[in-house]
Design goal:
Elements lengths: L4 H17 L3 H13 L3 H19 L10 E10 L5 H18 L25 E10 L2 E8 L1 H4 L2 E6 L4 H16 L7 E8 L2 H12 L10 H14 L15 E9 L6 E8 L6 E6 L2 E4 L1
Parallel strand pairs: 1-2, 5-6
Antiparallel strand pairs: 1-3, 3-8, 4-7, 5-7, 8-9
Organism: Variibacter gotjawalensis
Family: Belongs to the class-I fumarase family.
EC number: 4.2.1.32
Length: 290
């Protein structure tokens, strides 16, 4: 299959808009579960308001949140796909720019030193484009994630002492959830990366934070910590928007990587309740949105 970069450009644009306006079904189901289990009156009222806001935004085709985020595109390329990688990345950038200019969206991207805003949601090394490969035949999957700053500011890395073991990992995560409180617009998805190098660990935390809710860590020990932390953070009493209740988090997600014998990195990256993402798969038969 020859990848059509005009098609990629159009898809990069439409996925950005789709992600900003349509909340994924798994997040909506997550809200349903929290509403059913929340016992605090204020917490339940806040959840009800959030659900109503989502419904109004989708019905009126408005943005779920005014923050259009840092645009992230995750591209997974299957077997027997002819790709010009440079042209593909250029096409994604053009699609991202067009989404912001043509709809129009607020550009949230600025130069880190001058704070100049190009009004395109693009800049130096932005959009972020991650490329991976899998075994599917003649398939390219593109996922778009607009990562808002409110949740992205809830990011932390610590190089732990290996001898302190899993207890130190769990203590670090819980301490950071407490420190953040309502500043990350809970209920959240708490992404946790464990292992690797410092940069890989942070990347794992981002993968975990943006994973669908009904998935679990493929590593048995990671899955065990996921379950323990998911229960623990919802006993902290922070609640939706930090106003009290059990619904602090939809779920804690964990991703792991092997690491060095003398270190144990752990990272936290938060995804707010507006956990937006959109994806599509390109095959010889056409495009299907997920």
């Amino acid at each position: 299959m020859q990848l059509d970069n005009h098609e990629v450009e159009e898809l990069a644009m439409s996925l950005y808009i789709r992600a900003l306006k349509l909340l994924p079904p798994d997040i909506k189901r997550g809200f349903d579960r929290l509403v059913a289990t929340e016992t605090d009156a204020t917490g339940r009222a806040v959840l009800d308001t959030m659900v109503q806001n989502i419904q109004v935004a989708e019905k009126t085709r408005n943005l779920l949140c005014q923050d259009t985020g840092i645009p992230i595109y995750n591209v997974t390329i299957g077997r027997n796909v002819d790709v010009d990688g440079v042209a593909m990345k250029d096409a994604i950038r053009r699609g991202c720019e067009r989404a912001t200019r043509e709809h129009p969206l607020r550009s949230s991207v600025v130069h880190p030193l001058t704070r100049h805003n190009e009004q395109t949601s693009c800049g130096v090394r932005i959009p972020i484009i991650n490329i991976d490969f899998d075994g599917r035949e003649e398939t390219v999957e593109i996922e778009m994630i607009p990562k808002g700053s409110g949740s992205e500011n809830g990011s932390f890395l610590q190089m732990l002492i290996p001898a302190d073991g899993p207890k130190a990992v769990k203590r670090f995560v819980i301490d950071k959830v407490i420190e953040l409180g309502g500043r990350v617009c809970p209920p959240t998805i708490v992404g946790v990366g464990i292992g690797g190098t410092s940069d890989l660990c942070m990347h794992l935390a981002k993968i975990a934070a943006t994973r669908p809710l009904e998935t679990k860590c493929s590593d048995p020990e990671g899955a065990k910590i996921e379950n323990e932390l998911s229960e623990a953070v919802n006993q902290l009493g922070i609640g939706p928007q930090g106003l009290g209740g059990r619904s602090t988090s939809f779920r804690v997600h964990v991703e792991v990587a092997a690491t060095h014998i003398t270190m144990n990195p752990v990272a936290v990256n938060i995804q707010c309740h507006s956990a937006r993402r959109a994806s599509a798969v390109i095959t010889p038969g056409g495009i299907s949105f997920h």
